[in-house]
Amino acid sequence: MAPLVINGTEDTPEVIFDPETGKFSITGTSIPENARKFFDQILAWNDEYLKNPNDDTSVSFKLKYFNTASTKYLFDMMVQLKTLAGNKKTLVFNWFFDKDDDDMFEAGQGFSKMLRYPFNFVQY
Questions:
Q1: How far is 55 from 67, CA to CA, in rounded Å?
Q2: Is 16 in contact with 25 (CB distance < 8 Å)?
Q3: How do the domains of the chain map onto residue ranges?
Q4: How confident is the model over 92-111, as pLDDT tens digits?
């Protein structure tokens, strides 16, 4: 399976999902004009990954800003990947946030609470 690599733009985050290492990252700003179109490709790739996942998967979110539409799809992606934990695989969510950005920290806490899954919070 080939890695998923989407170059970041002013409106969309950089996405690098490497199935060999199990290291996934989403970095930047997520305010796509068409959130469904942008995130559907990620969700479809994850469906394929989940058929033969790495034993250890680590997902790092280092977002500066995301809009309401992105919130829904980010959560959908987290729910999708959380199935790994139920299948005896290791899943780690890393939520990076700027030390001065309380809103981003609280957003990560909200995702963790809704997902009922612990996140690692990393301040930078």
A1: 32
A2: yes
A3: 4-123
A4: 999 999 999 999 999 999 99
